Amino acid sequence: MSRIVLRAALILAAVALAGAAEAKGCLKGAVVGGIAGHAVGHGIAGAAAGCAIGRHEANKSDKAKSQNDAQPMSR
Questions:
Q1: pTM of the model
Q2: Per-residue burial over 4-25, b = 16 or more CB atoms within 10 Å of its CB, e = otherwise
Q3: N or C end of the chain: which has fewer CB within 10 A?
Q4: Which residue pairs, CB below 8 angstroms and at least 24 apart, start in 41-48?
Q5: Which residue, among 40, 45, 57, has the nearest Cα to 11 in the 3D structure?
Q6: Domain spans in the chain, listed from the N-terminal domain onward
Q7: Residues with Cβ < 8 Å from 58, sequence gap 6 or more?
Q8: How far apart are alpha carbons 40 and 54 in whole angstroms?
Q9: Would you tell me the crossing angle of helices 26-39 and 2-18 to the nearest 10 degrees?
């Protein structure tokens, strides 16, 4: 039980130090990845992979949105 609490504290500390701007997409991905990884016995690895994938998807979404905003409206 204490190992779980220690791991959770370390993950929360890492997220807090990363900052809000860097965490966009990471938190949701880490939760989903952590749950999926926990189901197969690799919760921490799943959370890390989920964070990376969530961050990647958030960056893609931001890039697509900025490209759409930059294009002039045509009639």
A1: 0.60
A2: eeeeeeebeeebeeeeeeebbb
A3: C
A4: 44/7, 44/11, 47/11
A5: 45
A6: 2-69
A7: 24, 25, 26
A8: 20
A9: 160
Cβ within 8 Å of residue 11, ≥6 positions away: 30, 44, 47
pLDDT tens string 5-61: 777 767 776 666 555 555 678 888 888 888 888 888 888 888 889 888 888 898 898
Amino acid 49 reads: A
Query: What is the Cβ-side half-sphere exposure of residue 51, based on CA atoms within 13 angstroms?
Result: 16
- In Å, how far are 2, 29, 65, 68 from 32, measured between CA atoms? 23, 5, 24, 29
